[in-house]
Amino acid sequence: MFFSLPHPQAIADYVTTRLIQLIQKKPNAVLGLATGSTMEPIYEQFCRQVAKQDVNVSELTTFNLDEYIGLGADHPQSYHYYMRQYLFNRLAFAQHRTFLPDGLCGDLQEQCERYSRLILEAGGIDLQLLGIGSNGHIGFNEPGTPFASRTHVVALSEQTRIDNGRFFDSMDEVPTQAITLGLQDIFEAKEIVLVATGTNKAQIMADLYHSPVDEAMPASIVKAHPHAMIIVDEAAAALLPAGACKPLLQLA
Ligand SMILES: O=P(O)(O)OC[C@H]1O[C@](O)(CO)[C@@H](O)[C@@H]1O
C-alpha cells in the first residue's frame, strides 16, 4: 500500500509510465486528475513523454477533483487555469471531454449532482490521481466528510486556506468554499494513486499510516481500496516507521 521512491522526479517518472501504460491499453480511459504543487512535476513529465512517445491523448476523458467557488476559469489561481497551464494547453486533449466543476455556477446543487452523474455515465474513473492536504484531505474533502459523499460544496478549513494561501497575494483572496468530488466518487475509481512529496507532508503521512480507516482522516479511505498505491518520496516518508514503505522499482 505505501511505496517509496527517492525524490519527486522519480515519482513523476513512475506515475507517467503507469499513465501511459493505461492509455496504450485503453485509449479512451477516464482519468481522475488532481491539482496542487505535488502534481506539477508529474504533469511536466507526462507532457514530455506523451510528446516523445507520440501517445494519443485525444480519446481520453478527464474529471478534475475540485475547484474553488468564486473563481472563474481565467483566474490564475483557479484549477481551470492550472489545468490549462500544466496539461490541457500542452497536449491534444479533446476539450469537450475535460471536465472540471464550475466555480461560478449559479445552481451549485444541480451542478454537483450532474458532475457525479457524468462520471458514472462515462463508465467511472479508471485511474484517480490524488495529492493530500496537510490535514489529510483528498480533493477538498476535509476531515469529517462522510465516506458516502458525492460531489458537494465544502467550507474550506482554516488549515487548508492557510496552506493554499501561498498561491494568493493575501489571505483575504483565498476562497472560503470549493466544489469537490465526494469520497464515494473517489473510492469508486478502479485504481487510485495518491502521491505525497516533501517534508511538509511527513507528519500527515505518518498520521495516515497509523490511522484506522476513519472519516476523521479522509485519505484513509484509500487504504480500504483494493487497487491503491500511496507513493511517497524520502522527505515525505521521514516519519514513517522503518519498513513501512516498499521501495518501488521504476516501471519499464
Ligand atoms: O500538492 P499540494 O499543493 O500540497 O496540495 C495538496 C492537495 O490539496 C489540494 O490543493 C486540494 O484539492 C489539491 O489540489 C492537492 O491534491
TrEMBL record:
**InterPro entries from the entry?**
Glc/Gal-6P_isomerase (IPR006148), Glucosamine6P_isomerase (IPR004547), Glucosamine6P_isomerase_CS (IPR018321), NagB/RpiA_transferase-like (IPR037171)
Pathway(s) where this gene product acts: Amino-sugar metabolism; N-acetylneuraminate degradation; D-fructose 6-phosphate from N-acetylneuraminate: step 5/5
Q: Which reaction does it catalyse?
A: alpha-D-glucosamine 6-phosphate + H2O = beta-D-fructose 6-phosphate + NH4(+)
- Domain of life, per UniProt, equals Bacteria
* Record's keyword terms, sorted: Carbohydrate metabolism, Hydrolase
Residue ranges constituting the Glucosamine/galactosamine-6-phosphate isomerase domain according to the UniProt record: 9-224
PROSITE patterns from the xrefs? Answer: GLC_GALNAC_ISOMERASE (PS01161)
Q: What is its EC number?
A: 3.5.99.6
Where do the catalytic residues lie?
Answer: 66, 135, 137, 142
User: What NCBIfam families does the entry give?
Assistant: nagB
Its biological function?
Answer: Catalyzes the reversible isomerization-deamination of glucosamine 6-phosphate (GlcN6P) to form fructose 6-phosphate (Fru6P) and ammonium ion.
Family under the similarity heading: Belongs to the glucosamine/galactosamine-6-phosphate isomerase family. NagB subfamily.
- The name this protein carries in UniProt is Glucosamine-6-phosphate deaminase
Tell me the organism's taxonomic lineage: Bacteria, Pseudomonadati, Pseudomonadota, Betaproteobacteria, Burkholderiales
